[in-house]
Amino acid sequence: MTKNGAVPTSSHAHPLVDLDSISHTKQRIKDGLATRRPWRVMFDFHSMGLPRGVSDAFSSIKTNLAYFRSNYAIFVLTVVFFSLIWHPTSLIVFTVLVFVWIFLYFLCDEPLKMFRFQIDDPTVLIVLSVITVVLLLCTNATFNIIGALVTGAVLVLIHAVVRKTEDLFLDEEATTT
Q1: CA-CA distance, 176 to 161, in Å (whole number)?
Q2: Ramachandran region of residue 6, left (φ > 0), alpha (ψ -120 to 50) or beta?
Q3: Of the candidates 70, 64, 32, which has an alpha carbon nearest to the alpha carbon of residue 168?
Q4: Which residues form the signal peptide (predicted)?
């Protein structure tokens, strides 16, 4: 309504839904999820095998954790989600945290800037992980959360050890040249 009580008749009123904004958000979600590696590459059975020694195992863990970082984060978050199905309060907190993860980690196409400082990707991952664990532990689902985190970490480490890394370097070189 205008100041004199009349209903405005202009067709240029702001729409309730900004289609450009929705389209831009959808594109950012697609681009953000594109930073994860394809699941078929991650679970390629031809690229699985035991390392030759402890040093090879540690090298494989380091390479795979860096290469599949987004996939591992999605996997652990999914394990935690399923562990919270019978704890509705924790599930609500977790759902809110998932949206925080999506916007601060998965959809960030450039490093996060806070108080004129640039925060790199691994730091955001660690801080979000700690905040997620602390907030979920405050919801009285401690044993479920700890069990889910241990289960997720063990499964990630097992994958990181047995996933060969020879073909991962070829993919990295192909994308940089």
Answers
A1: 25
A2: beta
A3: 64
A4: none
With tokens 């289960």, the residue in question is 151
Cβ pair 109, 28 in contact under 8 A: yes
Residue 171 CB contacts under 8 Å (≥ 6 apart), including other chains: 41
Output the CA–CA distances (angstroms, integers) from residue 16 to 23, 63, 106, in the order listed: 15, 47, 27
Neighbouring C-alpha atoms within 13 Å toward the C-beta of 87? 20
Q: What is the DSSP string of the chain?
A: --TTSPPP--TTPPPSS-HHHHHHHHHHHHHHHHTSPPHHHHT-GGGB---SSHHHHHHHHHHHHHHTHHHHHHHHHHHHHHHTTT-HHHHHHHHHHHHHHIIIIIS-SS-EEETTEEE-HHHHHHHHHHHHHHHHHTTT-HHHHHHHHHHHHHHHHHHHHHB--HHHHHHHHHHH-
Positions in the chain whose pLDDT score sits under 50: 10-12, 14, 170-177
pTM higher than 0.90? no
